[in-house]
């Protein structure tokens, strides 16, 4: 008999059993329909909270202690241009969020398709090969 005539049977034994994490199963994916709607709502809530927090910070009185930082009292550290810039950024962010919240996925796809239809044939995928 040669060295290769005897073969052990059975499956390959790996280090670490099932209990020790030898076999790892893939996790199931959650449905996207619920998660998309929930993420949009969460984004809207976050933006609203941030806007309200910044408004509340502007309205709160300064600290009474000597070492406490004063928010509205004393000289402001931001210039007028910086203040206007931040206001415009807040407004644009609010408009962008409102615009995204109004459209559904179906609306976005149809808008994208109409945009593609309006493009010239120069942007089309060329045919390659016979037929």
One letter per element, helices H and strands E, the order comes to: HHH
Q: Could you estimate the helical fraction of the residues in percent?
A: 40-55%
Rg from alpha-carbon coordinates? 31 Å
Shape: flat
Range of strand content: under 5%
Note the gap between the termini: 62 Å
Question: What would the average pLDDT be, to the nearest integer?
Answer: 75
How many β-strands, per DSSP?
0
**Estimated structural class:** mainly alpha
The main sheet comes to: none
Low-confidence stretches: none
What labels describe this entry?
131 residues, mainly alpha, 3 helices, 0% strand
Describe the SSE topology.
Layout: H1 32-59, H2 80-102, H3 105-118
Provide an overview of this structure.
The protein is mainly alpha-helical. It is 50% helix and 0% strand. The longest helix has 28 residues, at 32-59. It starts with 31 loop residues before the first helix and ends in a 13-residue tail after the last helix. The model has no long low-confidence stretch (mean pLDDT 75).
Short structural summary:
The chain is mostly helical and 131 residues long. It is 50% helix and 0% strand.
